[in-house]
Design a protein that fits this description.
The structure is a single chain. With about 100 residues, this protein is mainly beta. It has helices at about 15-20, 75-80; strands at about 1-5, 10-15, 25-35, 40-55, 55-65, 70-75, 85-90, 95. It has one domain (about 1-95): Acid Proteases (Cathepsin D, subunit A, domain 1). The chain contains two helices and eight strands; from the N terminus they run ββαββββαββ. It has a six-stranded mixed beta sheet. Strand 3 and strand 4 form a beta hairpin. The two termini are about 20 Å apart.
């Protein structure tokens, strides 16, 4: 999982959708600029997906995208719901209540 403070949307990898048989719906079409600056079009999304991250439940909408580096991407708006957050980049940890 990638927590990306610069991402506009949440994403889930197509492989995960297929592996778990998730039912996706056609959403609004968005254009996504990925790491190599290529632009990919996304049209399908999974609404209100529940993920467990170390016992913490995340419920969010995810666009389906072929993401080579990780299975899910959480955007900055999700982080906002956890405020305040303490991040320690040396220890690679986040703390919130």
């Amino acid at each position: 999982m990638l927590i990306d403070g610069g991402s506009t949307y949440n994403f889930i990898e197509q492989f995960v959708v297929t592996k778990f048989g998730l039912q996706v719906v056609r959403g609004k079409t968005i254009q996504v600029t990925v790491g190599n600056k290529a632009i990919i079009e996304c049209t399908r999304c999974y609404m209100r997906l529940s993920l467990s991250i170390q016992g913490f439940i995340v419920r969010a909408d995810f666009y389906v995208l072929i993401v080579a580096v990780c299975q899910t991407v959480l955007r900055v708006q999700w982080l906002e719901t956890l405020s305040p957050i303490q991040t320690d980049y040396k220890e690679l940890s986040m703390t919130f209540t």
